[in-house]
Specification:
The chain is α/β, with parallel strands linked by helices. It has nine helices and ten strands. The protein has a six-stranded mixed β-sheet with strand order 5-6-7-8-9-10, with helices on both faces. The protein has a two-stranded parallel ribbon with strand order 1-2. The protein binds adenosine-5'-diphosphate.
């Protein structure tokens, strides 16, 4: 679901969805705000600084959710983050949970006083190092640190916690396997890491939806692989590989 403005960015957004065979039924265009934008600066190591102007993103509301209830209640997975209003994200997670739909939450960009219901409504809670630091107050610079942060976050009520570590892969923790496990990733030449987290979380949503029989560790190995492909090309969405360009063993 999305709200975009009636402007050229909004038109391009809708067009891009159509070109990729993604339904635009719940991508609304409003004249009350401009399309949200993100200005991104990338350094020579491929690291980034992003300035987000939320714009129309903040207009997506719980009424919009109610209009999509028949689709949400039949979904395989509900993936939410914080680039829309937290109240709308929370409403979407609650709606999904009440229909037995698996919930995946990515607290990006992080807010320190996150509503506690985000934890209890998350089957899978997936954050990066800086988000883990903001949410826990711990310093997160290693897999061991990430494990400590994951334990703290799981104590707040999630079923599974994943902390991504950039080139270090990720750390996983679940109610059924409550010892943090580090899942390293490929060593690649990163050109632009912008959007790596979205690539990772998107891949994970795909595996949760279509390959639910895989172990969590296997899903994360494959998500690491796909995100590592994305950091080897410039841009965010433009760096994400199509399924046809990925090795067959991932499917
Ligand atoms: P975010 O983009 O939210 O800051 P991360 O930087 O933690 O998130 O990256 C998310 C995932 O993308 C990592 O867990 C890893 O799988 C992959 N990734 C990111 N940077 C690299 C890199 N330099 N080399 C290989 N994989 C990477």
């Amino acid at each position: 679901m999305a709200q975009v403005g009636k402007d050229s960015f909004g038109n391009n957004y809708i067009e891009n969805l159509k070109q990729n065979d993604i339904s635009t039924e719940f991508a609304y265009q409003t004249k009350d705000a401009a399309t949200g934008t993100a200005s991104i600066i990338v350094n020579n190591e491929g690291q980034n600084i992003i300035v987000i102007v939320a714009g129309a993103n903040l207009l997506l509301n719980t009424e919009d959710l109610r209009g999509a209830v028949s689709v949400i209640s039949r979904a395989r997975v509900m993936l939410c983050q914080l680039e829309i209003s937290p109240a709308t994200s929370l409403g979407a997670l609650a709606m999904a949970r009440s229909s037995g739909v698996k919930t995946l939450f990515n607290p990006a960009p992080a807010i320190a006083d996150l509503d506690p219901q985000f934890y209890t409504l998350s089957d899978v809670f997936c954050c990066n190092e800086s988000e883990a630091e903001i949410l826990t107050g711990l310093t997160v610079g290693s897999p061991a640190d990430a494990g400590k942060a994951a334990l703290m976050l799981m104590g707040r009520g999630c079923q599974v916690v994943i902390v991504t570590l950039g080139a270090g892969g990720c750390v996983m923790l679940s109610q059924t396997e409550p010892t943090p496990k580090h899942i390293p990733t490929e060593t690649v030449k990163a050109v632009d890491t912008t959007g790596a987290g979205d690539s990772f979380v998107g891949a994970l949503a795909f595996y949760l939806a279509y390959y639910p029989h895989l172990s969590l560790e296997e899903m994360l190995k494959r998500s690491n692989f796909i995100a590592a492909v994305s950091v080897q090309a410039a841009g965010t969405q433009s760096s994400y590989p199509y399924r046809k360009d990925l090795p067959i063993h991932l499917f």
